[in-house]
Design brief:
Layout (H helix, E strand, L loop, with lengths): L2 H33 L4 H20 L2 H30 L8 H5 L6 H26 L4 H20 L2 H40 L1
Length: 203
């Protein structure tokens, strides 16, 4: 193979890898920003929608919630499609399909991305299977007894709460904790500044 062609392929593959790494870093940063409420509007929207979904799952079945969500989405898209068609017919414009840019957009998953996520999840699955076999086959008696006690306690938890209620409580506490930690750090900084200024005045 020509050395120039080989170097060009290597540089293109490196550029693709760098682009994937940067995209992964940006996605991690965006999730972290949502959790720590860096942008209150986006975090509030995500928190509200996810809480509404969990409350809906607590009141209705998964099939009903999914059907209502898809039905609402279809109602919105069909209504908008009919509205744009009527407007185009009245104005005699040839704008075409209102969702043409979204239809033409490539939504397929790249094989490399799929294999990367499968390999990452396979590592966790193998680790979990190994841990389960170790616990249920009583490789260590103390650890298996601990698991038995925890499962016995969870029977009482399950009699009081269901899974959706625990998810709602966990999500609420998970969204409140970063804000409390952030406010705690701010309070510490304020008190330290006040204490330093007071010592400076007294001295």
């Amino acid at each position: 193979m020509d050395p120039m062609t080989q170097s060009a392929q290597i540089s293109s593959s490196q550029g693709l890898a760098d682009g994937q790494n940067s995209a992964a870093k940006e996605s991690k940063l965006s999730v972290k920003d949502l959790i720590h409420w860096r942008d209150p509007k986006k975090s509030g929207l995500v928190f509200g929608l996810s809480m509404l979904l969990l409350l809906s799952l607590a009141a209705f079945s998964v099939i009903s919630v999914a059907s209502y969500l898809l039905l609402a989405l279809l109602c919105v898209t069909i209504t908008f499609r009919i509205y744009k068609s009527v407007v185009q017919a009245v104005q005699k414009s040839g704008e075409g399909h209102p969702f043409k840019t979204l239809i033409d957009k490539d939504v397929s998953v790249a094989p490399e991305t799929f294999r990367k996520h499968v390999d990452a999840s396979l590592t966790y699955i193998n680790r979990a299977l190994k841990q389960m076999s170790r616990l249920f086959l009583v490789e260590d008696l103390v650890d298996s007894l601990k698991l038995a006690v925890v499962m016995w306690l969870f029977t009482y938890v399950g009699a009081v709460f269901n899974g959706i209620t625990i998810l709602i409580l966990g999500k609420h506490s998970g969204n409140q904790e970063p804000c409390l930690i952030h406010n705690h750090h701010i309070s510490e900084k304020v008190f330290s500044m006040m204490f330093t200024s007071r010592n400076y005045v007294t001295s």
